[in-house]
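Try it yourself: sequence plus nicotinamide-adenine-dinucleotide, in.
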Amino acid sequence: MNKKVLVSALSFRRSEAAVKFLQESGCELVLSQVERALKEKELLALLPGCAAIVAGNDEITDSVITASVPELRIIARSGVGYNTIDLTAAHRHGVAVTNTPGANSKSVADLTLGLMLALVRSIPRLSGKLHTGVWEKSIGGELGGKTLGIVGTGNVGREVMKRAQSFDMKIIAYDIYPRLELTEACGVVYLPLEQVLAQADFLSLHAPALPETVSMINRQTLALMKPTAFLINTARGDLVVEEDLSDALRCGRLAGAGLDAFISEPLERSCLFGLSNVILTPHIGASTLEASERAGLIAAEEVARVLQGLAPLHSVR
Ligand SMILES: NC(=O)c1ccc[n+]([C@@H]2O[C@H](COP(=O)([O-])OP(=O)(O)OC[C@H]3O[C@@H](n4cnc5c(N)ncnc54)[C@H](O)[C@@H]3O)[C@@H](O)[C@H]2O)c1
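Structure, out:
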């Protein structure tokens, strides 16, 4: 049986246990040589003859899938988001698509809290100054007593809630599927989006990129927020209209932003570059050893199952 597997996901390549698992399952691994998601053209060159791909945020388009069948049987995303995979094309060709729900939620939640603290205490800005010998103090704020607004209370959102609870934050949220158990466990109050925007001192995005969520943070919605509020986006860049955010930050309509995801990645040019009240990180939410191991092992197991003729455990539709 053909067991050639293209491994693109960087996190997977870093997980010795996941690589070993696939090798011991008899798979021949083709490891991507670049430290970023693969473009359509690169996939078209690498995928033919492969029965599986362990994917990052690669451009897995209709053309890529059509050119890779019938050999290609599974696209195993080592991570959660699958907005760069053409699901319709995959399903049309009978190619399984899986992800690793929950595997990196704790890591993304840690980064989210890190961005909140870094913003409210101006840590990167003050550290940058001190590195040049400038001893400048500024008055920050505490998280305790502040209102955290969460958009999307799934795996990451609820980990963020747990952490925010320990900081004595008030938690409000908007989700199309409110979870009553979270109201009991974390004291979260679900509200309409407009009210969450208006009340939040920190607004943290944890919804997937869907037609209904793309550009949800724009000039109009930003205008509903407090000028003292901070926006955190560790979800998907497409949720935010970056030009509108940049305008809001420049004219003091918003206090600051912490962003880990961007409309175009890797981010090479941006209207957000150079703004002292913005912290930018290169999509590192899931980039921890722990999350890589967890996601890698789940993805490896999915590949092994499908190549053995078994149904995957975490299909996405
Ligand atoms: N920065 C990173 O490295 C990183 C890592 C993992 C996940 N993510 C991203 O974080 C986000 C959340 O991941 P997750 O694992 O918690 O996903 P999840 O599927 O567990 O949760 C998503 C939540 O969003 C809600 N939702 C769906 N449509 C909505 C809408 N229109 N409005 C409001 N809420 C809506 C869902 O009901 C669900 O509760 C995703 O965008 C994912 O791609 C980023």
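One thing you can check immediately is this: The mean pLDDT is 96.
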